[in-house]
Design a protein that fits this description.
The protein is of the alpha/beta class. The protein has a single domain, classed as Rossmann fold (3-Layer(aba) Sandwich), CATH 3.40.50.980. It has 5 helices and 5 strands. The strands form 2 sheets. A 3-stranded parallel beta sheet has the order 4-3-5, sandwiched between helices. The termini are far apart.
């Protein structure tokens, strides 16, 4: 296998070779590579419609879920930068990071939002 290891091509290649196979399990949910790719693309298009461009920062507050994985791929797909926020931080920590990161968008997992804010 002589394929460059470029992040933006990992998912595309997996869809091509293993599209119908399970890519990720999250609790009682499972997604194929094709489904995961579709979700990532919808996120990218949504962010683009919000005006997110290459180099922009997008903050993400979520545990290790499929949504976090989609965030990494979807944000990177646009050339933007993900600012992952640890779910164990305090509201003051989040405020500091968000004020200094220059993030244009903040995604918050619903469960995390109830515990933090």
């Amino acid at each position: 296998m002589n394929v460059p290891l470029v992040l933006t091509e990992f998912l595309d290649r997996a869809v091509l070779l293993y599209g119908g196979k399970t890519a990720v399990y999250c609790g009682d949910r499972a997604f194929t590579y094709r489904e995961l790719n579709g979700r990532v693309n919808r996120l990218s298009y949504g962010l683009k419609n919000l005006g997110i461009e290459k180099g922009d920062r997008v903050a993400y507050l979520a545990p290790n879920t499929v949504e976090m994985l989609e965030g990494f791929y979807g944000i990177f797909q646009l050339g933007a930068v993900m600012v992952p926020l640890n779910i164990r931080l305090t509201p003051e920590d989040y405020r500091f990071i968000l004020n200094h990161s220059g993030s244009k968008v903040l995604f918050v997992d619903q469960e995390s939002m109830c515990q933090v804010f």
